[in-house]
Design brief:
149 residues; alpha+beta; two-stranded antiparallel sheet; 9 strands
């Protein structure tokens, strides 16, 4: 049997913690900013839909409903993470009032104002191989404020 030290020199195998830290960094780089430019990992489930915004709806004397469309905005959404480190969870927990959310999608980079609509929900906590707390099943609801033409 070949000695483990020799094998590591010939075929270097990265440490699990190093791989995890590298993946967290990659996700953070592809993530988006919330609250004072602090980056958080992009959620596993983050799909946005657009909704029309109307200034007013009116019913005519014939019963027909008409409306004045003034633009669109992103619909209220839930952000869900499979796993989130403690420091990232603290960023979400510190959100209050209107926050800036920067993200990139098929249309390019966007900066939106959001307001949390739910408390941060978590289901399970454990520790990774380095002993850092990790949270599983994290969910946060947000409402988008900005209206676009």
């Amino acid at each position: 049997m070949i000695d483990e030290k020799i094998l590591d020199q010939v075929i270097p195998v990265p440490d699990l913690t190093e791989l995890k830290d590298q993946r967290i960094q990659e996700l953070s780089d592809a993530g988006f900013a919330i609250k004072n430019g602090t980056k958080i990992i992009r959620p596993n489930d983050f799909t946005l839909e657009r909704e029309d915004v109307y200034a007013g709806e009116y019913t005519t004397c014939t019963g027909k409903v008409i409306a004045d469309r003034i633009g669109w905005r992103y619909a209220e959404s839930e952000m869900k993470w499979g796993t989130l480190p403690q420091e990232q969870l603290e960023v979400l927990l510190s959100m209050s009032g209107a926050c800036t959310l920067k993200f990139t999608d098929a249309d390019g980079e966007h900066t939106e104002t959001v307001v949390p609509t739910t408390r941060v929900l978590v289901s399970t906590r454990s520790r990774d191989t380095a002993g850092r707390p990790m949270w599983y099943g994290v969910t946060l609801g947000v409402k988008f404020i900005n209206v676009h033409n």
